[in-house]
Amino acid sequence: MRDFANIAARRLLLLLLTVAAVAVLSTLLVRLAPGFGMDERQLDLRLTGRSVAAIRARAAPDTWRCLTGWLRGDWGSSISLRQPVRELVSERAGITLRTLAAGLAIAWAASALLCLAGLWVHRTALDCALTLAAGGLLCLPAAVVAVLAMYFEAGPAWALALVLFPRVMRYARGILTAGWRRPHVLAARSRGVGPGALALRHVCLPAAPELLALAGISVSLAAGAVVPVEALCDSAGIGQLVWQAALARDLPVLVPLTMLAAAVTCAANLCADAGRVLVCRWV
Amino acid sequence: MRLDLFLFAFLAAAQPLVAQWGGELRLSLRSEPRSFHPALADDDASDMVRYLTGGVLVRINRATQQPEPSLATSWKVLDGGKAIRFQLREGVVFSDGTPFDAGDVLYTVETLMDPNLHSPVGDGLRTEGGPAGAAADGPLTVTIRTPAPLAGGVRLFDQICIMSRRSPLKERAVLGPFRIAEHKPGAWLRLERNPHYWKTRAGRRLPYLDSIRLDIQQNRDLELLRFQRGELHLISSLDPEQFDELARARPGSVRDAGATLENEFLWFNMSPAAALPAYEKAWFASRNFRLAVSHAIRRDDLCRVVYRGHAVPGVGPFPAVNQFWFNRQLAPHAWDLDLARRLLAQDGFRAEGAALRDREGHAIEFSIVTNAGNKARERMASMIQQDLAALGVKLNLVTLDFPSLVERIGKSSRYEACLLGFNNVDLDPDGQMNLWLSSSSNHAWNPEQAAPQTPWEAEIDRLMRAQASTSDGQKRKALFDRVQQIVSEQAPIVYLLNRNALVGIAPVVRGLQPSALHPRLVWNIDEIYLAGAS
Amino acid sequence: MRRVARIALLAIFGLMLAAEWIAPYPYDRQFRDQAHAAPSRGHLLGTDAIGRDRFARLLYGGRISLVLAPAAALVSVALALAIAVSATLAGGLWERAAMIAVDLVLALPWIFLLLAVRAILPLNTSPAVSAGVIFALLGSLGWAAPARILAAAVKSQLRSDYVLAARAAGCALPRLALVHVIPNLAPVTVAQFWVTAPVFLLSEANLSLLGLGIAEPMPSWGNLLRDLQNLPSLARQPWVAAPLVLLIVTLSCCHAAQPSVEDLR
Known about the structure:
The complex is a heterotrimer of chains A (283), B (534) and C (265). The two termini of chain A are 18 Å apart. Chain A has 12 helices and no strands. Chain A is mainly α and 283 residues long. The radius of gyration of chain A is 23 Å and the shape is flat. In chain B, strands 13, 14, 15, 18, 19, 20 and 21 form a 7-stranded mixed sheet that branches. In chain B, strands 1-12-9-8 form a 4-stranded mixed sheet, covered by helices on one side. The two termini of chain B are 30 Å apart. In chain B, strand 16 (350-352) and strand 17 form a beta hairpin. Chain B has helices at residues 3-14, 44-53, 102-112, 120-124, 220-228, 240-249, 278-285, 287-296, 299-306, 337-346, 375-389, 402-412, 433-436, 455-468, 473-490; strands spanning 24-29, 58-61, 66-69, 72-78, 83-88, 133-138, 141-145, 178-184, 188-193, 200-201, 204-205, 211-216, 234-235, 254-268, 311-313, 350-352, 355-357, 365-371, 394-400, 417-423, 493-505, 509-510, 529-530. Chain C has 265 residues and is mainly α. In chain C, helix 3 (54-90) packs antiparallel against helix 4 (92-107), helix 3 runs parallel beside helix 6 (127-141) and helix 3 crosses helix 10. The radius of gyration of chain C is 22 Å and the shape is elongated.
């Protein structure tokens, strides 16, 4: 137990250091990208030269001050939306969390169902259908997925699920197919073990570490996918905020949200790793 | 026929013609409003909210393009245009009941003249001599003074929303037909009727509508989908494909309101500080080169193919829809490859095989930047690429995201040519001063010149300053006509086309008069009603 | 089935490579009087918004998409495999450092690096070169997600009997990796590749919204797929979906044509 606590503490410390590194590196990336410090209002013909110069100055905040502020927890104000970043995030966090949770749940449920069905039934036609379905969805641009979801009044969670499902399913299918072909599964089948027990105890359980890793990675995939999904579905979540901030090079919004995404990703992977360790010990 | 049946039939048929009170109008905004402060509205979404909630001294009727009394019942231009005296409407109160008087106008002008505000509306009140000032000549009389004549004159006050100096709600207390009721950031904004709005009709206070819901909808495809489902009543800007699609599916729900002030154009980088080879600078500095490019572009094709006939070839800074200021002596540069070749030959350009070369033998090849994600502009650029290929010019298309584009054209000057558009909001050429003055940071092709680098730019400077220093409309017109002529002759900006206003209107919406000027559909919001509302 | 898929793939790649001879027109030729035309004898898949032949653009676009996207996917999966295998086998500090690097790479907004690189390239860079640079960057940045999954798979392999037996027999780490671990990762690795390739192909389309896609007038399947956004018009112009259909067919054929796990062993 003590060992576990020590490891957890070390991993948490690593998480914090990773998030700090993300803050520094993402600030650097945004700072170096072309268009930093630019504001489309500069092109407004009604403004005098003095106003244009003032707008330029405001659009390029003091990077060092911002960085130390973020690391202290002071997130400052958005340049483009002129509101405190914390307020912007707290207004939108609920929507994004619901979208993420629902999207991941739908994608995993569908993937689990279809992968297990594929293993049990093991028909070429079903295999082809699954390959085509996953392949087809992978080939759809995010903008088309978003319009499809809204066309059928399904909402951004379903759009996110449609984006995640083929990726999760493909990876999961590869993992479970490899597990299904292991010698001990053949031995269990020859001894008459039922399909349910076979799939769960002899295929999924040994593959749990990889599935947990996939679960961890699917959280970061979802965190990445939620940005274009919310932007294209016009859903007022954090993803839409990130998209708008990226287009406007709004450093005070981008970096804290990137840190938040990094924390979520690392936490998800930390949980996945912890789960893997526990499963390995149990198995 | 029985009289009662006849009356019933008559009333049923006449019902839609009689304004209905009540209901909620639903339309969308393309982005989150950045500010609800009337003086700081500098993006389209904030501007729309300001228009719907703000009260102004003078309102420009978008149909006639003439100023009409609003919070001011009358006005007089004095002192050669350096002063305007307004007589204010009596008995008006803000949306929270606070009385309106001359002090509020003074407060508004003072706020706009704050040097740290940097408001586009406020900057419009500044002249070369300095900021504007205001003085009350009574509780309902106010005089606005400027050191130099205010060229835009009374028309500027169409954009200046009067703020309350006394209300505890500060800028949230408004004089317009609606006030902000609810706001869900990133999602929607609801405006409710202003219970104290000063305009009345048949003994009742306008507006007819109870509320307006503005959904924040960036995705145009989703906006169209929602309009087709009846979730939105209006779309203020359809792209040509959407327009034709909707016209096919629901013919009565679309309108082409004619050419707008929004133009598409390209220009060449003529800044001496640009990091371009000397021979390229020489090309772009050559008037004949610019004119040749202009004559090689098939504007009719751009209008017909990209905009599906919903655009008119560009002539100059204003299209014909700007009835007073447009120079009717000018016409779009006609497509004429022979003329283009002759112009190029005059400056030593010659064709060698398929390529055009300059005097020194350099092949004419340059890039044109435009903003990514704008389908129409990308298509126009592709068509211009093919048009110039006929001359032997190799044009490379580069799309950039907007901040990168602004950096290149506004700061680093690392570009060769640019294809962009301007959304003019002002009918008056004074609104374009910062484009034409050579010392301005927005003098697109060669900004912030210490002194005009060419005689024709010096002439434009002189003409623009002269038109800004008089309030005589006809004199100003003559001066600006000459500016338009110089621009046509020198082609520092190659005007391509003016887009038409393509709008979607649900059949239940009545009282609308679509205009090519902003805000296209809701400029007479207090007269708009929904059939079958109450 | 595998043979049919392989023949189909050869036919598709053959068509793409022979675009210059098969395409009826150059991909950038504009028939301005026939914009948005329906399929006809002159234009097998109709024309686009400015009158360019869709069939020609489909053929030429396939070259970019079917070469660059899989190449970028190959780079990223190869990098992921190398990092996952070496870090997990080395264990300890190396493994931890690799996982931190994965988290960092997943979290950082690399879009700004892509913008910075595009800004460095001269404006007159040819579309092919700028496409190559963008795909190379996507490939070199896209290893993080596959690396995590592969690392977990490697860990799982390390607990297996045959790996234990090999180590007990004194098998050196490089040989262990090459002979015992990597071949058994084939199904997972191949799955990564088949997910990553279309993702990169579509990334190019999404990046074009930021000016990072294939420059006009050069076509790619990614930018042809953008026409699908207008769903209502798709019902009237189903031929616009031809790139999507061809892409699905190509990917499915690639999947069906791949060697079995036994063949890979």
